[in-house]
Amino acid sequence: MNIRLILNLLTLMTGGLVVTITSIFIGKQAYFWLPPQAAAESHLIDDLFSFLVTIGAFIFLGVTGVILYSLTFHRAKNYDMSDGPHIEGNITLEVVWTAIPVMLVLWIASYSYQVYEQMGIQGPSHLLHLHNPIHIQTAFAEEKETPAETVSEPLEKIDVLAKQWAWVFHYPEQGITSTELHLPSDRRVRLALQSEDVLHGFYIPAFRLKQDIVPGKTIDFEFTPIRPGKYSLTDSQYSGTYFATMQANVIVESPEEYHAWLEKTVGRIPTPAKNQAATEYAQTHNENIQLGWETVKPAAPPVVNFAG
After folding, report:
1. Pairing between strand 219-223 and 271-272?
2. Torsion of CA 35, 39, 44, 49, to 10 degrees
3. How far apart, in whole angstroms, are the C-alpha atoms of residue 289 and residue 291?
4. What pLDDT digit, counting tens, does each position of 253-305 carry?
């Protein structure tokens, strides 16, 4: 066998091994680019994100490596202005570089679909009441046997109302209304998401959860908080002029602290909550500032037991 051919094969194998190991390392680092995992479902999204970063790094480093190799070992000599060899084409090569991206895209699509099935995120099939024969599994904080009634009947049920521009959370069993979402740690939670006006998006980055809220529909959304702390809920959809002010605190606490908060809040007299959108709207119109576009008047500040 030609020595040059052997050297090229060794170079190719060594380069491929280096690119593979480096890509896997970069993919592992992607876990540190995201907020701490605050929900049981977080690891599913983080694993998917790490997988995509690994694939992207492999493609980028592979293409860059081929370019650098070509520039280093196959560049023309100084003052060589002649044309390169005339190549009509290579059917085998064209089939390979077409098949590989197609298979890669199908792989990513299949993996992503499995992740969203495991998370149980509701989509168009939920709204259109289509029959889905595939049983949707959901992630839990720990790998252990769980009674069937725990899965089918979440311990906590909370109604979530999105409107321009405020979040309102209603705890039906206690009759509590709040502009701050309190959740028990390591307990299954079911949210009934509703919109009063336009399309909104329920998005908590630390939970890796996002769900569009469609007007006129009630969407059940389940997850399991696992990390006590204070997190941010924001509207992921553009819902009008003051949509950036549509944020709320999410407080994950131990079950004991959660029930203590419920007991403390249930006796409070409902009062109007502070609403930044309404405040900015009032300031703008009181000062007669001409913005140059029509502005939707915010909904009245919600009347709640707990304003956060």
Report:
1. unpaired
2. -10
3. 6
4. 999 999 999 999 988 888 888 888 888 887 776 556 565 666 778 888 888 88
Structure tokens at 181: 């979402």
Residues near 305 by Cβ (< 8 Å), separated by ≥ 6? 176, 177, 178, 265, 266, 268, 269, 270
- Residues 93-117, mean pLDDT to the nearest whole number: 90
**What's the chain's average pLDDT?**
82
Q: Which residues pair with 203 in a beta bridge?
A: 210, 234
What is the Cα–Cα distance from 41 to 35, expressed in whole angstroms?
13
For the stretch 47-68, pLDDT in tens is 999 999 999 999 999 999 889 8
Backbone angles phi, psi at 254, to 5 degrees: -65, 155
